[in-house]
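Proteins fold reproducibly. Take a sample protein:
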Amino acid sequence: MSKTLIFIGGAPGIGKSTVAGLLLNDLEDCVWLDGDDLWRMNPFIVDDHTKIMVEKNIIFVLNSFIQERFSYIIFTWVLHIDSIIDTILSGIDQFDLDIFHYTLICDEKTLKGRLSMDADRTTDTSLALKRLRESKNVKSSKIDTVNKTPFEIASILKREIT
């Protein structure tokens, strides 16, 4: 049975989690992993060691989901440079696996507005803008989120993957 792996990347605050949550509820036999879930640690340390650990954990969890009954596996994370995607793909079992990779983009003014409206978000705006600029260069299908609702974006993705 063919399975579908869906990468959804983009800057912090762009709407990855919102879109993934909609897809999760709309697709049968679906599971979702957010890469941020594997970074929840105290103290929060980003160095070469923790980056490697998190990437290994992502690969492990994705492979576990691929081996189970799930038809659709959604993976969200910033995914702002190709080497991150390459590392993950090099470690997963791609046999009979359809892979779709999307990057959500918008203009800087829109992203700033979204970040300012999310009171719970602690994202550094300058880092989010940097990730936005970097993610526009990733080899993926780009979805411009300006003037689109999360429902519209999820519908676009669903049409393409099903």
Summary: Residues 3-161 form a domain with the Rossmann fold fold (CATH 3.40.50.300).
